Amino acid sequence: MDKLQAFCRELRKRKRTVKDIEPRTWSEDDLLEGKLTKAFVFILKTRGCFWAHHSGCTMCGYFNDSIPDIKEEDIKRQVEIALQRYQGEKIVKIFTSGSFLDEREVPAAMQKKILEKFFENAERVIIESRPEFINNLDKISEVVKNKTLEVAMGLESANDRVLKHSINKGFTFSQWRDAAKGVIDRNMELKTYILVKPPFLTEAEAIKDALHSARKVSDISDTLSFNPVAIHANTLVEYLWNRKLYRPPWLWSVAEILEGVAEFFDGQIKCDVVAGGSRRGAHNCRKCDSAFLKAVEDFTLHHEKDAFKNLKCECREEWLDLIEIEGFIKG
Ligand code: SF4
Ligand SMILES: [Zn+2]
Questions:
Q1: Which residue from 121, 143, 160, 331 has the fewest beta carbons nearer than 10 Å?
Q2: What is the 48 CA–ligand 1 centroid distance (Å)?
Q3: Where does the pLDDT of residue 146 fall: very low under 50, low under 70, confident under 90, or very high at 90 and above?
Q4: Best residue among 44, 51, 175 to mutate for probing ligand 1, ranked by most atoms within 8 Å of CB
Q5: Residue 317 Cα to ligand 1 middle (Å)
Q6: At what angle do helices 289-301 and 251-262 cross, to 10 degrees?
Q7: Domain 3-330's class?
Q8: In this structure, are residues 136 and 153 in contact, taking their beta carbons and an 8 Å threshold?
């Protein structure tokens, strides 16, 4: 374990104990074959991401909601509750804040049962996994046959230096790419998460890194999903932010990335701006934040490719200055 990993691990010790094992569920808008539809989101609490138990990604605070000693019957109960709340939405997203395909989080038999149940009504089910567990897709292939299973895999950055020193992702780009090929070879769809503004990158470097990463995976991904960093509790990013050594990305940067990617990527582009407009999330000057957040939604959900074109605000100058000055300081 290197120093960065040891420090991330140390910060995680501040996690509070979670006792509430109710699953979180809600319904939201999404796109199915280009048309607006409803998606059912099911956050299944598990023991949490194995990588977070080791040291974890520098921006990820999902471990705060995991229950390390959770029992199998608690998982079962959450599934039953979610199924009761499920209203037949065409898309179902099952997120464990880790890897659905990791049998330590969700036992293989349970993975099958959950998918079977939701596929009775859903046309598309989306799960998340780290690359290490992609071969486990073979164990659920029977259930998924003739259905659309979308596997969402966080890449964050295609730059190995950023993966190791900014994110502590625990894998290299080529390892991720091999697993991504495994998803495609099994006739499943691939959603790739790309992080917007990992720590230790300037604003300009962050824009470049997101665009470069998108290019490197545009041939293999059905969907590119951009995640502007939000400040989660007990993470390295929060530690830096508290000391004014990190600011979440500007929404100007997010707009530039989304517009840039649309020039070379034909698949679906998504962007979930968690805590957008607040100090802990991607933001501009406050005055224009809500207009930008609406434009992100129009751009990603309603295919309005010109959504950002008419946005004006005096904070653009500040953003441009920052891009110039940061580059000058870093030399
Ligand atoms: S970002 Fe994903 S892989 Fe990294 S610690 Fe969080 S859940 Fe695990
Ligand atoms: Zn502004």
A1: 331
A2: 9
A3: confident
A4: 51
A5: 35
A6: 20
A7: alpha beta
A8: no
Q: Considering every ligand atom, which ligand is closest to the CA of 314?
A: 2
pLDDT (0 to 100) of residue 1:
83
Rounded to the nearest angstrom, the distance between the alpha carbon of 250 and the centre of ligand 1 is 23
Question: For tokens 């998803």, what's the residue?
Answer: 183
Cross-strand pairs, 79? none
* Domains of the chain, residue spans: 3-330
SS3 at position 40: strand
Q: Is 259 exposed, middle or buried (0-12, 13-18, 19+ CB in 10 A)?
A: middle
What pLDDT score was predicted for residue 330?
A: 66
CA 119 – CA 122 distance, rounded (Å): 5
Whole-number pLDDT of residue 331:
59
Which chain residues have CB less than 5 Å from ligand 2, an ion? Answer: 284-285, 287-288, 313, 315
Residue whose C-alpha is closest to residue 254's, from 270, 240, 265, 233? 270
Question: Tokens representing 253?
Answer: 């940067």
pLDDT in tens, 197-238: 999 999 999 999 999 999 999 999 999 999 999 999 999 999
Across residues 11-17, what is the average pLDDT?
80
> 165, 202, 203, 229: which is closest to 8 by C-alpha?
165
pLDDT at 60: 97
Q: Is 51 in the pocket of ligand 1 (CB under 6 A)?
A: yes
Return the pLDDT at 281.
Answer: 98
For atom 6 of ligand 1, which residue has the closest CA?
60
Whether 241 is in the pocket of ligand 1, judged by its Cβ within 6 Å, is no
> 62: Cβ below 6 Å to ligand 1?
yes
Residues 102/191/33/143 CA torsion (nearest 10 deg): -20
Q: Give percent of the chain with pLDDT exceeding 70.
A: 99
| Closest residue by Cα to residue 165 from 227, 209, 217 | 209
